[in-house]
Amino acid sequence: MEKTSVIRCLLAVALTVYLVMALVLCSDMAASARCAGFDIAVNDAPGQPGFVTESEIQRLLKEWKLDNAAGPAAKVNTRAIEERLNAVPNIESATVQRMPDNKIRVRVTPMVPVARIFNSKGASYYINRDGKRLTANSRYRIDVPIIAGDFDKNHPATAILPLVERLENDPDWKAIVSHYRVDPSSRDIILVPMIRGHVINLGDTSALDSKLARVMTMYRKVLPLKGWEYYDTLSVKWGGQCVATRRDKVIPQSMILFDQEGEAETDNIDAMLVSTASDTVHSTTPAYVN
Q1: How many of the other CB atoms lie within 10 Å of CB of 218?
Q2: What's 218's DSSP letter?
Q3: Is residue 202 predicted with pLDDT exceeding 70?
Q4: What is the pTM of this model?
Q5: Could you tell me where the beta strands, DSSP code E, fall in the chain?
Q6: C-beta of residue 220 within 8 angstroms of C-beta of residue 228
Q7: Cα angle vertex 170, ends 169, 176, to 5°?
């Protein structure tokens, strides 16, 4: 019995030594195993592409000198890469892992822009649904609604997003509206139509159904008769009225607003609002104009 116990103890010790040596050997092999490259993927939301691309991630890794795939995989600082990527404003989240095949797996979820803002200083930036500002860069461009205005914590851009989303999802209004503007002094919301010559002053977003219906009545019953360039402003900010201001100036030549990268973006909104109110037409009901 004692001999059997001694043999068992010796076998246990031998097995332990073997396992330790195997672990050390495997650890050394893993530490010296060559990196098999970077597996980078961007998780864009379906139908809502962000403006972070795989090539952009590769460029960032190279810029940070964290893209060394020539050495051992264990030497790749996955934590540093993950922290740097998560600090990028246009990235919502990023995960970086070293896989069993010694590839470095990088998965990035970008912020999804819903609008592009142009402020009075000529700068521009994107915003997501939460109003977070995202960097506008000439390397990528997203087709989103354009809003001209100055926004801060007291006047956040998110206040206008429900209106923008509603009109962008309405085929008729999407075909009408070119871009949006918020007046810096009155904070009135201005719709700039695709048809040059006039703008639509909504005031605020209250009684929106009534306001939009009044504008549509003008479009269907008045402007085809008067002419699309007869008025320079259609205002429905007051209840039950559509106040149309007659134009007494020639429509200014289309001007181009340039962003900070020097690329053309949209018509100059201020130029389209230049006018003198010489005659005002009132509508007390959506279907009637004097």
Answers
A1: 23
A2: I
A3: yes
A4: 0.67
A5: 38-42, 91-98, 104-110, 115-118, 124-127, 133-134, 146-148, 177-182, 189-193, 199-203, 231-235, 243-246, 256-258, 264-267, 280-281
A6: no
A7: 115
